[in-house]
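Q: What would this chain look like folded?
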Amino acid sequence: MQDQSQAIEDLLLKRDHKKAEIVIARALRSKNSDSDRARLLVYRARTRLIGARPEDAIDDLLSAGNLIPDMFEQPERLELLGDSYFARFEQASLGFADRNDTLQASKFYQKVIEIAPHYANLGWIYYQLGRIALTDNHIGQAEIYFRQALFTPSQISQLTAYCYERLGFTAFYERRDLNAALGFLNKAIDTYPTGENRGWLAQVHTLRSRVLRDMHNYEQALATAEMAVAVAAGAGPEGHVSRIEALLTAGELLAGLDGRERDVVGYLQEFLQITKKPLGVDVTWSRVHEMLGDAYFRLGQYEGAAEAFRAALQFNPYHPWEVSLHYRIARSCYQKRDYEAAVRAIKQMLAAAETEGEPVRDYRVYDVLGNAHFALKRYGEAVEAYRIALQIAPPNAENVDKIKTYYQFAQELS
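A: My prediction, written as structure tokens:
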């Protein structure tokens, strides 16, 4: 058993949890004493937790506890139980998370503090308690735990950086203290050990970029977002989630800058390529397509713009700016000379505005409608659209003289 344990430990140290589980499965098929089988189940629980299978990890740990009732009087095993229950809570599908899992995790963590006040990995225990407090919106308590974790011994070399990142997160999202948030995130980056998962570091750069954006330091925010993209890309599979967030953040920042439309398209198209397409309503995908549509339109790629705006409505049928999106579809269709589609989009826009009880008072909408009807030689409809445009346009409105001219032409041709 000692040789098997060493082999398993070596594989776990190399983070090869799949091969470790194979070795454990082979060992479990052999005849073992209750104590040896319990130890193997604990090892397998560790591999399953690393492999994002906390449900299976919990089953193994409970089975081990049935074999050796006093097994979970040791802080290492209590820590593993706490980590497994908390992981199950975090990985649960939206709406299916069980708050009892965080209560169980807290119970095991608190027991570690009680029975082993000098435990070598106690810093991690406080950090996990802080994260649990955040899930329950106990911000002050969470910050106390994170600060306590900073000054408590731990076997996890990244823990200092993890704590500073969480303190930066709470300072930004909960306290709205941008200077404190930036300071904590800078420390998280500075204290993160070389050689560890770069995907996590990319997430910190992304969060730091958002803080800088809210500080109106747009140049530095953009540079930091682009750094996050580069770091995540170099992290391989471990950086996949971080890369998605970084691409979105960079795209959002660039969308507000003139002359960077091609970069917006590049970042957001890459985001769509590496992100799983949602099956139903998804506000993020709707927003991405809306930004893409605006970038395509400014680039003169009107077909792509119209398709992107339609996708924005498809992914969010309850879009708060539905009326505006229909208008942008109409403009795109008109620019690519699909006048029938432009008319349909304007009619959809007017219907949506009527449903919302907010009549359209923008003369430019009726100008586009009049232009589309005019191009289709429907001069009577063009006259009516131009008439409404002139009726609601401000006296100094742009293009009002052009509208008057085409209004006259349409009257003469109708």
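Residues 34-50 form the longest helix (17 residues).
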